[in-house]
Fold this protein.
Amino acid sequence: MGAMARALPTLQRPEGLVLDQTFLSEEEERELLARIESLDFRAVVMRGAVARRTVRGYGWKYGFENASVEPAEPLPDWLIPVRDRAAYVLGGPARSIWEHRIPPVKELRYSLTFRTLRRRA
């Protein structure tokens, strides 16, 4: 391999990763999917190019072009139970050291990400 060798997949769970694959029942998943499918998403533009993803932000809206953060509409009530029992939570090395990415797939996929902003010192 070249100078930048690919990271090898690991079967070990990174320190700080909490995972719950049963956090939604099948019925809850169907209801959540129906709500998500009814939302309006906006294109992501980075460095002048439209990315291959769309987003919908609540609480805070991230400006991908200029790395800005500004207020957005509040998190809807129907998303609060999902936020409060997330499928996975990253902390420690899993949050700060490991690379986080979702490999491309041909199927439509939704990813819900709940973030907490730190106050600047």
